[in-house]
Amino acid sequence: MLKKILLFLVFMAVAVFGQAGKVNIADTIDVVVNQRFKVPGDRQVVFTNVTGLNSTKAELLDANFNKISDLTDEQYFPRTISAKKGRGVMFRYEVFGIVKEAKNYYVKVSLSLKDERKRTKNMTGYYMVKAHNPTMAQEVKVRDTYYPTEKVNFSFATSEYTDPTKYSYHIEDGAGDVVDSGRGAIVVLEDLLKDDNNVGQSFTIVGKYNDKEFEYKDFGTGELKTTRWGFALNSPSLGFFSSWHQIEKGSNSQEGQQYYISPLNPELLKFYFVYSGDAGDGNLVVVPVKVRGLTITAEPAEFLSGNGGTAIVAGNFGQVVLTLNQEFLDNMEFCDDRYVKLTMTFNTQYDRNITYTFDATIIK
Q1: Residues of the chain falling short of pLDDT 50
Q2: pTM of the full predicted structure?
């Protein structure tokens, strides 16, 4: 007698009340947005003693049991039911879906089957789907400001999105144009940061999974955030090292009279310029200065020859070396001293028309 009855093994249910009245919920499934999920969650809808399949239908419903869409990604076996000598077979069914927002849904599954008595059985099962945002696998640290030549990379991989080939990102400039892109969950900023033409601009990193931006829960706080991170590439601050006294702009100071420079010591004729910026956590970013278009004038003018000096990159510094007029030195007596004032003008990779004024007492 038992085998003549259509048996269903999964449509066990818990009753809830919705817009459609009392509804039996067969299972509750936790899913992640934008990630393919299966209904039922960890098994299949299974029926025995099935002799025929009339129809299958699955629908995605909202929390009030209103229809959102049909779910057409169905799998069932056997695809064709052939009952031998009137004996039924085991029938298995499952359906797949994707949701884009983190909230509660229902999936309605309707099956029409025939049992061994050739009776049509129409059955409906409801499944609750609780959709969540993914959680970042580690803390994402993106500063508001970066400096040229920094080597920066970070990962926006989540604990739930496990296919590394589905991650991608692109970087937009302030106008919204894409200036760089990459595959995978690791964002690499090195090429963008080392391009001097990008200094002074703002950028936005857009992380995607399955080619879509997504919201995620912060690794530490659980706060909901989006996969967009903005930053600016700023010019670092220009500084210098020298044995000469600097005269501030607009000052008539001659404090350089107290700074004594021997022209016979070549190290005292060098000026070292460097760009630096605070990268946070006690780290300092150092960028060598590329001195261009250098001109140096002196008072008295005969202290220097040619354009007054030369510039090279020396390690982490842009180095300026004075070109002295040997005749000026030859005309100085031993232990003689002369007050000298220098005006130095040049451009760099980030700034134009930079002017420094220095003074010192030259003693032979």
Answers
A1: 1-18
A2: 0.76
